[in-house]
Amino acid sequence: MNPDSGPGTNTLSDPNYARELPKLNSRKNVQTIGYVRTTWATRNISDVLQDVSTYSSWAENKTADYQVHGIFYDEAPSTYSSETAAFMKTLDQYAKAQVGFGGINFVLPLSISLISARSQSGSHPKR
Question: What's the rounded mean pLDDT across residues 60-75?
């Protein structure tokens, strides 16, 4: 889902999302995920974490099933540095700790820069 380059401010009051998100969530072969931009690990990390929290909080809505099952981090860095690796690791851990994602807590993508760094060091991503 990408209501407004992230969760937006009044997405659940939009009749289109209010109607369609529960329909998607009712399908067994669908897992909805929320879109969050990272601006190549330069966006204020507090703003990124707030977007994740907003998506997670949708599960608390008692009107309908607005739960999303994880996060898609767009604009992930493609060049490794210790700073970008720490930034993305923080985001990954934060999303995976959210109770509002129903235990699925799917995170996409695992940054190319982290995969590259782990490949070079001989270690593999932990899941």
Answer: 92
